[in-house]
Amino acid sequence: MRGPLQQPIFTFDFATAQPLIKTVVATPDPAGRPQVSFDWPAVAPADGITVMMVSGAQRWRFVVPGDRRAVTAPELPVDLAEWALKGTIEQRVVMAYEVDVLNGYDDFRNPSLEWAAWTRDDQLPRPILPKNATLRRVEGR
């Protein structure tokens, strides 16, 4: 069995870390259009933000531009109404991403750029970055 010739090197620079995402609030909606809002005092917008909402067996993840501070679930067509998030939002997670090899939101959500593999059930981006690339991510719950 042969392994990699060299282990990847990661460095952490907390002096350039993003500010914390604070006060993540989920507001349920009986019509199935809950909202998650949050405070994030970032000076510049992130390349992209992901917001996850969980209600019972329902799990939704939204990918939105980095200047957003609230996300509202869309109204679903009648034939998909059973998938609406009508119950209590039991879990909500907000993640903001900055990736120096991307040029904003359009690049962040463009799968053809292959900067990350959107994997697993939670559909989180798993970075696949070139050497010496920088990714900054902050999470709030």
Description:
The protein is an all-beta fold and 141 residues long. It has one helix spanning 105-108; strands at residues 22-27, 35-39, 46-55, 58-66, 70-72, 91-99, 116-119, 124-127, 135-140. It has one domain: Immunoglobulin-like (Sandwich). Helix content is 3%, strand content 40%. The strands form 3 sheets. Strands 4-3-6-9 form a 4-stranded antiparallel β-sheet. A 3-stranded antiparallel β-sheet has the order 1-2-5, with no helix packed on it. A two-stranded antiparallel sheet has the order 7-8. It is globular and about 45 Å long. The N and C termini lie far apart (41 Å).
Features:
141 residues, Immunoglobulin-like, four-stranded antiparallel sheet, 9 strands, 3% helix, globular
What is the CATH class? Mainly Beta
Strand order of the largest sheet: 4-3-6-9
Structural class by sheet pairing and helices: mainly beta
Strand content: 35-45%
Distance between the termini: 41 Å
Order of helices and strands: EEEEEEHEEE
Mean pLDDT: 82
**Any low-confidence stretches, pLDDT <50, length ≥5?**
none
- CATH fold group: Immunoglobulin-like
Task: Assign the CATH architecture.
Answer: Sandwich
Count the DSSP helices: 1
Shape: globular
